[in-house]
Structure formats: C-alpha cells, structure tokens
Task: inverse folding
C-alpha cells in the first residue's frame, strides 16, 4: 500500500467491548497498528489477547466498538493453535499452495526464510508444533502482507529458535515495512524487538514503549515486581540495541508513561 | 445382455459414487459423518411426508434435508451447545418424527421400503437425470471452489483472514452433501447412504498422497463398489444396496493392508 502515509494506521480498533456468557472479556480496548510498527499484546492468561486479535482480524464481531482497516490492506495470520489431522494427506507443499498458486521454487524460498529446509514434501501432520507455526508463518509471508498478525509465535519453540524467530519478524518489518501485531507471554525476548507494548487484562492497563511499560505500576501489579525488576535489567540491553538499530527510544525516559484507566 | 433397467442402475450408481467419493473425502476430513447421518434421518422424514401428502417424494426429501442443514448452521453459529449434541438432537428428532408420522400411513408401503433399503434396480429415467444433475453440480462446485473448500477444512480462521467466504463455502458443502444423500438413498437406502460417502473415502486415504488424489481415488473406489455390488447382487440374488456397501467395506479392509503413504 504505497499510497498510505507512514502514519496511517493499517488497522485501528476503538472502544472494543465483548462479552462472552455474561463475562466481560474485553472492556473498552483500543489498539492500532501502523505501517512498519511492531506492536505486542501482553497480559496474563485469559486476559483476552487472542480474542482481541480475532476482533482486529474481523473473525469475531465485538458487541460495541469499531475496527477500521485501511482499504486494500493484505493480512497474514498465524493462529495460536493449529494442527492438521492425519486423515488429510496434506504435504507442506500443498498447505503453502493454499495461500495462492506459487511455484515450487517460491515455496522453498518461503520455507528457507523461516528457517525450514527440505520440508516441502513432508506431510503436515508429522510436523512438530514449532515447525507447524513456522510453516504457517511461511504461508502468511507468501501473501506479502501489509499487516502480519502472530498469536504466540514462539509457543513450542526453544530459546535459540525464539531469538531467530523474533529476528525474522523484525527483518520482515524492516524489509517490507509491514505492520506487525504480536501476542506473547515471554516478555523478555518480545520487548527487545517491540516498538510498542499494549498490556491488557480485559482492559488496556498500560501501553507504550517497552521501557515505559516496564516501569508502570500497573504492569508491576499485573506481572509482579520480580518481572518488572527483570525487565529493568533488560533496559541495559535495549540501551545497547539502540546504537545498533537506532530506534528512537529514550533509554532513561522519565516522562509520564501512557497509562490507561487501570 | 444389458437390459435397459440394468444399464440405468449401473450408470446411476456409478454417477452417485463419483459424486459421493470426493464429497465423502470432505466429510471424512471435516469429521462430518454425524452430519451425514442427521441428513439421512431427515431424508426419512421427507419420504414419509411426501407419501403422506401424496406428492413426489424426492423434492420433499431435498427440501427437508436442506432445511435441517440450514437449522443446524444457524444453531451452530449461536454456540449454545456443542455441534455433536445439536446434531444428535436434530438427527433423532427427525428420525422420531418420521417414525411417528409413519403411524399415520395405513400400511407400510412398498415404495417406503425401497427408500429405507434402496432399490437401485428401480432407477427411472427421471431419477437418472436427477442423479446426473447432482453429479454435474458436485463436480462443478468442487472444481471451482476446491482451494477454498480445502482451505476452510485445514483452518477456517486462516482461510477467513485470507479472504475466503467461509460461511458460504460451508453452506455450499452442506447443500452438496444434502443433494448426494437425497439421491444416494435411492441406491443403497437411507440406512446405508452415509457409508457410500465415508467408506470409499476412508479406503482411499491409505493410497493417497494428496487431498486431490484422495478425492479422485474415493470416486474410483466408489464406482468399483457399485459395479462389484451390482454383479454380486445379480449373481447371488442379494439386495443390491447392502451388497454395494459390503463390497465397499471389503475394499476398505483390503486397503488397510497397503502400507500408508504420506506419513513418512
């Protein structure tokens, strides 16, 4: 979408309210993703992260609130849970071709990009959880998405694989300028690669740059002080990263963090 | 040697098998066997209604089956109960209503029996036209929407994000299933029609390395079963419908001896 100004949100969800069986799952949640931005949703189990992602994707209709997607935005999605039944004789090759009629070479390249080689003819149902996730990511990337949505992309991936995966995600952003919406539990790795963190627990409890969020009292309440302290440690990493990537983030920002109505 | 009626049976049976094979593959992949049973039970209700109202049964059957499919889709979306529970309620509800209405019929009429157990040798020219029309509809739909159907089978949410009209594809698949069941019961009867969908597809799984192969092999397996079953029935004077299903089950058992492909 070359016509979009860099600041135009690819997708903007405003005032999302969603009830399930009488329980308030999402309460006045706002989230936007702009071109070239990596936004990470964090929060405890049952905080409504995956539900919010599905609302943003248009898979679930909210009770109130709006989701506005910029016209013509192509979306790639890697769900959290995903498996192919053994009764379906589907190879990785066949699975990737569901994204569109690509030739074998292109499919092999897409797999290589996510770090999976020589897997094209493997049946889907024998892949491990981590491999499945990456194959799904390859399918999403084949669509050359403007917006890439990943729900728990590193579930079932070892630590080395996680680092690789986040590097890949950052590279996708750098190469294509796509906006990326992530859901994650493991804050450490996520934070190093994230432009903006939205911390939700039904409502948005805090959001902003990772450093700001880590200092937010609402964050400490939600995740405990131990984690907040651990992330304080990570700030040094970030200060170091700055020189490398030149992300505009004041390492010692003491200005007010963006605090939602916690 | 081939009499007219035999030729009609053979062509009609093979056409149904050719339509049921690929569609049956989707039934197996999407775990919709219970839906097939429910639709078949609804078909019985349709038959009884048709006889009671003294109108042509097949259109009533198609109407009732499609209606049940639509009710199920609507209920499924509201997520009140799990799908298998909903299916059991609708399926047995239709069966029980059919049996209750049956009590209003003076006598257990012969043409009703033919719907319960199938009467492939009584396939009329009109039936044959309808069967061929269903085959054409199934082939055309699968050919046109193959990738979408497969995409929603693998993962409906990814498919939806990629722009596949998931609900419409599901509905179309269900309607095709309803159509095949409605015409298929003429062949093997309401009690066994679902086996025509499932058994050839299940037999094909062993030999198939891709979804398209499995669909195609299921169609071929189904046609072999129809020919084999008909021959068996003529030679040994067996009821044709059950004979076809027995051949299908034998074919399935044989296929299990072949080492599985696509599961290295």
Result:
């Amino acid at each position: 979408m070359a016509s979009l100004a860099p600041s135009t949100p690819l997708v903007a969800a405003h005032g999302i309210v969603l009830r399930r069986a009488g329980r308030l799952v999402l309460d006045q949640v706002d989230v936007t993703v702009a071109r070239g931005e990596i936004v990470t949703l964090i929060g405890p189990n049952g905080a409504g992260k995956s539900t919010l992602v599905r609302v943003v994707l248009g898979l679930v209709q909210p009770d109130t609130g709006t989701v506005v997607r910029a016209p013509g935005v192509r979306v790639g999605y890697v769900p959290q849970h995903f498996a192919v039944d053994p009764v379906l004789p589907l190879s990785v090759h066949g699975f990737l071709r569901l994204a569109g009629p690509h030739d074998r070479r292109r499919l092999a390249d897409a797999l290589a990009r996510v770090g999976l080689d020589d897997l094209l003819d493997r049946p889907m149902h024998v892949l491990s959880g981590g491999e499945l996730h990456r194959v799904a990511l390859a399918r999403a990337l084949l669509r050359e998405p403007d917006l890439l949505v990943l729900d728990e992309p590193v579930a079932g991936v070892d630590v080395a694989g996680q680092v690789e995966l986040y590097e890949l995600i950052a590279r996708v952003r750098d190469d294509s300028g796509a906006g990326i919406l992530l859901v994650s539990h493991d804050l450490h790795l996520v934070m190093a690669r994230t432009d903006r963190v939205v911390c939700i627990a039904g409502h948005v409890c805090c959001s902003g740059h990772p450093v700001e969020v880590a200092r937010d009292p609402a964050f400490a309440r939600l995740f405990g002080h131990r984690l907040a302290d651990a992330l304080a440690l990570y700030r040094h990493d970030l200060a170091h990263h700055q020189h490398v990537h030149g992300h505009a983030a004041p390492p010692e920002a003491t200005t007010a963090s963006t605090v939602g109505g916690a | 040697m081939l009499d007219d009626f035999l030729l009609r049976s053979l062509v009609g049976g093979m056409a149904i098998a050719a339509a049921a094979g690929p569609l049956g593959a989707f039934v197996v992949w999407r775990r919709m066997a219970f839906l097939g049973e429910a639709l078949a039970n609804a078909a019985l209700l349709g038959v009884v209604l048709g006889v009671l109202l003294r109108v042509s049964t097949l259109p009533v059957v198609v109407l009732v089956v499609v209606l049940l499919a639509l009710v199920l889709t609507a209920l499924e979306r509201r997520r009140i109960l799990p799908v298998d529970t909903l299916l059991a309620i609708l399926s047995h509800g239709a069966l029980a209503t059919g049996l209750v209405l049956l009590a209003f019929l003076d006598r257990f009429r012969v043409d009703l029996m033919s719907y319960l157990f199938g009467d492939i040798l009584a396939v009329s020219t009109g039936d044959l036209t309808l069967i061929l029309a269903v085959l054409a509809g199934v082939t055309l739909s699968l050919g046109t929407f193959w990738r979408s159907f497969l995409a929603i089978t693998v993962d409906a949410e990814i498919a939806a994000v990629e722009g596949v009209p998931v609900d419409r594809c599901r509905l179309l698949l269900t309607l095709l299933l309803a159509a095949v069941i409605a015409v298929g019961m003429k062949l093997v009867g309401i009690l066994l029609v679902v086996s025509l969908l499932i058994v050839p597809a299940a037999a094909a799984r062993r030999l198939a390395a891709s979804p398209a192969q499995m669909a195609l092999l299921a169609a071929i397996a189904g046609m072999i079963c129809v020919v084999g079953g008909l021959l068996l029935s003529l030679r040994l004077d067996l009821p044709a419908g059950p004979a076809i299903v027995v051949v299908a089950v034998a074919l399935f058992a044989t296929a299990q001896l072949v080492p599985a492909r696509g599961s290295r």
